[in-house]
Amino acid sequence: MTNAAIQKHNHPAFNEPDVTPALGAEHGLNEDEYNLMLSIIGRAPSFTEFGIFSVMWSEHCSYKSSRLHLKKLPTEAPWVIQGPGENAGVIDIGDNQAAIFKMESHNHPSFIEPYQGAATGVGGIMRDVFTMGARPIANINALRFGSPEHPKTRHLVDGVVSGIAGYGNCMGVPTVGGEVNFHPSYNGNILVNAMTVGIAEHDKIYYARGAGIDQPVVYVGSKTGRDGIHGATMASAEFEEGVEGNRPTVQVGDPFTEKLLLEACLELMSGDAIISIQDMGAAGLTSSAVEIADKGGIGVALDLDLVPQREDMMSPYELMLSESQERMLMIVKPGKEDMARVIFEKWDLDFAVIGRTTKEQRLKINMYGECWCDIPVPPLVDDAPVYDRPQGHYPKPESIDPIAYSIPDGSDLHSVLHTLISCPDMASKRWVWEQYDHLVMGETVAEPGQADAAIVKAPPLSPPQAGGIKGGKALAISSDCTPRYCQADPFEGGKQAVAESYRNLCASGARPMAVTNNLNFGNPEKPDIMSQFVGCVEGIAEACKELHYPVISGNVSLYNETSGEAILPTPVIGGVGLIPDWKKSMSLGFKAPGETIILIGETKGHLGQSLYLREIHGLEKGPPPPVDLKAERWHGEFVRRLIDEELITAAHDISDGGLLCALAEMAMAGNRGATLTIENNDPAFWFGEDQARYIVTTKDPDALLALDECKAFPVMTLGKTTEFDLNLPNGHNISIRELKELSEKWLPAYMAA
Amino acid sequence: MKTSIILFPGTNREKDMAMALKRVTGHDPALVWHKETDLGTPDLIILPGGFSYGDYLRCGAMAAHSPVMKEVIACAERGTRILGVCNGFQMLIETHLLPGALLKNKTLKFICKHVNLKTENGESEFTSKLGKGSVINVPVAHGEGNYFANDDILHELDDNDRVAFRYCDGNGAVTDEANPNGSTANIAGIMNKRKTILGMMPHPENATQDWQDNKSGLLLFESIVEALA
C-alpha cells in the first residue's frame, strides 16, 4: 500500500496525538522540515511515521548542523580500512589484525541520571565496536564536570564513575585511562565521552552495509521496553532548569546481558552467517533498520508482533523509538537462521526473525494486523536537512605580556608548584581509576598514570599460524583536549588537541595511527557557538593532515547548554598508536638516579591560557600556545627514534602546568628526585605551556646529544635524576613525598566531604 | 597435569587464568562450559573471576546452583584440587566448600589495585614455593571481597592453619592500612581442612606475565603444578 492513507482499526487504543506542525516543533522539526516530510510522504503521516522522521532528522542522528564541516576532516591513509560512516573506524595493525575504535558521548543522560547515563554510554560504545566483529580490549573515557564547588558536582562525579565501573568491570574489558577535568561551564552540562578499542581479524570484520533482497531480518539481545524513547531528541535540544524530570528518557543498562551478547555475537561471527549487522543505539530499531536498508539500497518490512517485548501493549511508535539497551539487528544468510538461533539460545538471549529485506526501498511496519508505516527509506537519510549555520565574528584574543604575571608576593616556584599539582585538574585521579578494573584480560602494559598513554597488548585472536602472527604488539590509547584553549582560539585549540594526542602516543613509543573524535559544543543555532565548532574542526583537520593522523570515526554532541549557558568548546581527540613490540613501550617515571634529563623543543614561555595564569592569577586570558605542526612531527618522530634505539629511559610530553609540573610528574611516577641546573626564576619558563616539547631521561647523554637532530632541534640539558627530592638551583628543595601527598589528597578529600 | 577452568555466563577472567597456567605448564587448560555435567577427571579445577550471572543475586550465588557445580562438589569430595579466585572464591563460599561470607568492600566501591599478601600457610600444595611469611604483590579487582567470619570460624581457620594469605604492607606487617576491603583479620584467602581447596579474592594470575607489574603470582601456580606433577 504505497502512499495510501493508513487506516487504523482493530488495535489497542493508543491515544496517539494528531500530527501537526506544532507537534513537529515539539519533536524538534522546524516548519520547513515538517513540510519536507509531508511532501516526501505525500499524505498525512501516521504518528509512527512522524516519529521515525523526527528522530532520523534529529541533530543526533542526522548531523544536520555539522555534516557540512565534518567533510573537511582527512579520513584516508593507506592503513585505514574503514573511515567514518560505519559503527566504528577500522585500521590495519599488521599480521592480518585490525584495530576498531570509536568515541561517543552520553552527556545529556549522564547529567539527568549519572549512573545509568554513564553505564549505558559505555555499553553503547562497546556495542558499536563488537558489532563490527572486534573483541573490545580497552576502554578509556573523557569526563568533564562542573566546578567542584557546584552543589551537584560531587554527586555527578560519584554516579558517573560508578556507572562506568559498573558496566565496564562486568563486561571484563579493562578501563585503562582517560581524563577528568572540572570547569564551571560544565555546571549544567557534564560531558561523558567513552571510547572503546577492539581488535579483529581482517576477514572477520562486519559492516552495516551489504544486505541484499529477501533476506531475514533478525533481532537479538534483550527485550524491548518503553525506556529511552526519544533519547536522541533529548540529546538534540538545550536543557532548562529542572531537566531531571526527563529521567524516563534515560535507558537502563544491563552489562551482564551485554557480556552474553558480546560472546554470542563473536561466536556467530566466527562463521559466515551474518551478512550485515547494526547495533540498536540512538533511535533503536528505527535507525538500525534504516541504516541497514539505506546502506544496502534495499527496503525492510518488519512485523513488530515478533519483536521480543518486555512490556504489554506497546505501540509501534514506542517499539520503533525505544532505546532499550543490549540489542542488535542483523541480516542473516537465508537458511542460516536456525544455526544462529542455537548460538543465541546457548547464551540465553532472545532471537527473533522479525521481517525480511525487500527490493522496494521502503520501510514497512506491520503490527496488530495493520500497517503503521510505509515510507521511502532514502529520504530518511539522504534528504535529512543539512545546514550551513551562520557563524559569528570570533575575535582572536589579545596577546598578554608575561612580565605582568610574575609570581605573586609571598609565593615562590615551590609554592606555585604545590598549588598547581594539587589543583582539581592536575591532582591525581587515583580515586577514579581504582574503581575501574584496568587489569582484566591480562594484557595491560601501562596502568593509569604510568605512561603518557594507556598501553595494552593486542594479542592474536586465533592460535598463531605457522611462521605467522607475532604476539608482541601493543596499542597506545589517549584522549585529549584543552577546552580553555579552544574557547580562546578555536582553530589553535583544535590543532592543539590533536598535537597533544600525537605527543602522548609518541612519548609512549607508539606510531600515531588514527583518531576518533567527540565534538562537544553548545547550541549550533548561535553564531558564536557555530564559529567555535567550525574553528575547532578546521584546526583538527589541519593538524591531522600535517601529522598523517586521519580521523576514522567520531561523534558530535551539540546543544550542551543549560538556560543559555554553553560549555567550553570541547573537541576530544581519542588517539590510537601502534607499538610493534610492547618491550619498546615507554613510561614516564624517572627510573634510576644519575640519569641525564633532557628537554626537547623550544621554551618561549607562553603564559596565555596557562594553568598557571588560571590557578595563580585567577585569569583565563590571552591566546593559547600556538602549535607548530612541523615541530610536532619532527620532535615526535625524534622521540620515537630515541625509544626505538633504546637511548632513553623515560619520556613525558609537556602540557598543562608546563615544564616544572611535567618534571614533578616524572619524579612522582618514578619515586625519584632530580637536581636541576637551569638558573631561571621566570614563571613563564617553568610554567609556560609551549607546545611540541618532551622531557626524556638517558643514561648516555653523549650519544644522545651527538645525534644530528640535537643540532637541528632545540634541545637543552636540565639536570640529573637523584634518589630523593626535586632540587632547583635557587635553593628550593621540593620533597617528592610531599608532592605525592598533595597530588593524591585532593580528590578523595573532596569526595568524602 | 589436567586443568579445567569452568566458564559461567559472565565469567571474564578465564583468559588471564589460562595464560598463567599455560606459562607454567606449557599447555592450554581446558575451558568447560557451565552446562556440562561430566567434568572427567581433572587434577585441578579453577573457578575464575568475573560476574557470573551478573552478580545480580549475591555474588557467586547463582553459579553455586549451576549444573556443573554439582560435579565440582563431587570432585571436591574426591579430593580434586580446586582454586577459586575472586568470583570463584565467592562461589566456593556459596557452595559451603569454604566457610564465612564475602560482603561489600568497606568503601562500598569497586577496588582495583595492587596489594601485598603475606603467606600464612607456606606448606600447602598451593603455597609451598612461597613459604611461610613471604610477601607477594598481586592485584585485587572486586566490589565484594570483604571477608567476614565469626569467632568460631576464625578459631577453626587459625587452629588448622587454614588461612593462606592476609593483606599486609610491603614489609609483611598485617595492618589496617594494608587491608583494602575491610576483611576480618585481613584475610585474603583460605583453604579447606584438607588443604585441597584454596579460595582467594586477589588475582595471582594477573602477576604472571613479563608485561605485568610483577610476576610474584607465578610461585602459586608453580607450587600447585609441582605438587600435582
Task: Please describe what this structure looks like.
The complex is a heterodimer of chains A (753) and B (229). With 753 residues, chain A is an alpha+beta fold. In chain A, 34% of the residues lie in helices and 22% in strands. Chain A is built from 26 helices and 28 strands. In chain A, β19 (561-562) and β20 (565-566) form a beta hairpin. Chain A is globular and about 85 Å long. Mean pLDDT of chain A is 93; it is low at 1-5 and 464-469. Chain B has 229 residues and is α/β, with parallel strands linked by helices. Chain B has one domain (3-228): Rossmann fold, CATH 3.40.50.880. Chain B is built from five helices and eleven strands; from the N terminus they run βαββαβαββββαβββα. Chain B has helices at residues 14-25, 67-78, 87-94, 151-159, 218-228; strands at 3-7, 30-33, 44-47, 81-85, 101-103, 111-119, 135-142, 146-148, 163-168, 187-191, 197-200. In chain B, the strands form two sheets. Chain B has a nine-stranded mixed β-sheet with strand order 2-1-3-4-11-10-9-6-7, sandwiched between helices. Chain B has a two-stranded antiparallel sheet with strand order 5-8. In chain B, α1 links the parallel β1 and β2. The longest helix of chain B has 12 residues, at 14-25. Chain B is globular, with a radius of gyration of 16 Å. The termini of chain B are close together. The A-B interface holds A 162, 165-166, 169-172, 254-257, 259-260, 347-348, 433-445, 447, 457, 474, 582-583 and B 9-10, 12-13, 15-16, 19-20, 49-51, 53-56, 109-113, 139, 141, 143, 203, 205-206, 209-213.
